[in-house]
Amino acid sequence: MPSEAEKELALAEYYEKIRNARVRLQTEFDKNERKEVDIKNFTALSVIGSGGFGSVYKASTNGQGPYAVKVQKKSFIRKYGLQKEIILERKLMAYMDSPFVMELLSHFKDADNLYLVMPLARYGDLYKMLKRSGAVPEARAVKIIIQVVLALEYCHACSLIHRDLKPHNILIFERGRVKISDFGCCVRSDGQVFGMAGTSLYRAPEMLKGDYYTEAVDWWSLGVIIHQVLLLELPFCGKYDPKPLVISSILNASIRTFKSPNYSETAENLVRSLLEKNQANRLGAIKPGASFVKNHDWFKNVDCTS
Ligand SMILES: Nc1ncnc2c1ncn2[C@@H]1O[C@H](COP(=O)(O)OP(=O)(O)O)[C@@H](O)[C@H]1O
Ligand SMILES: [Mg+2]
Prior knowledge:
The chain is an alpha+beta fold. Helix content is 39%, strand content 16%. The protein has 10 helices and 9 strands. It has a 5-stranded antiparallel beta sheet with strand order 1-2-3-5-4. A hairpin with a 3-residue loop joins strand 1 and strand 2. The two termini are 12 Å apart. Bound molecules: adenosine-5'-diphosphate and magnesium ion. Magnesium ion binds at residues 51, 168-169, 182.
């Protein structure tokens, strides 16, 4: 067990790193790196995900791995004019440096595709976990969610808004380790940000209304996720509701309350503070947002440093 002094030191080092994160990311960002790797070196073992741009494979190379290899089709990227987003995603993943953020081990391309090689999350994503095992017991959910809070703390310190936080983009590793992934919708938060991004069910009201927004949209998505993880239900609407109904429920409806032994008053209080429709009053809206979220009672028994 680390002593109190060692814990204090670890915490001080952690905050120093967070303070330097944006500067470091900015410096590293413009470097032009090139990796001499080829998809022919990889053996695909199975498909583990498919998204808009292509598929994600479990694959090994030269007896090493398995890794996750995300294949992005160039034709798709060209068709939808997503070149800028794809380059940003790759660069961010290459240079972000947090245990709670998915890193890039390598990347390369051929005539048809771009390839991103990542560590493999053996337990898949949080969405699959919910489908497989049902609601997450609250004590375990706290340990998962605090890591998402730390990931957002890091992203926001780098002046980045994730904009597509949802269970599908939260990956589960051994020993309950969690990383957020999928930076294809990420945007720099300097100045006022506009524009629709991410997935309707997790979008904050200000984004849906076309207003300017801030990092607080990620805290909203986190509120939706906590509700879903504990109750297997979305807070405002059904998963299969038509889009106009989803939007009007997020904008106008109050949170559907459920009585469940897996939904303590403290959890409900946190969810309500994050799902505050007025972004100015939302928990996390005032900088440094993550500190306010971490200080909520729901997290009082978890160690925020490890
Ligand atoms: N490193 C990984 N380890 C395990 N599964 C992954 C990994 N990366 C992605 N996946 C799976 O593939 C899915 C799609 O990947 P993602 O990067 O989110 O692509 P998209 O931009 O298409 O949503 C994820 O929801 C997850 O199920
Ligand atoms: Mg995704």
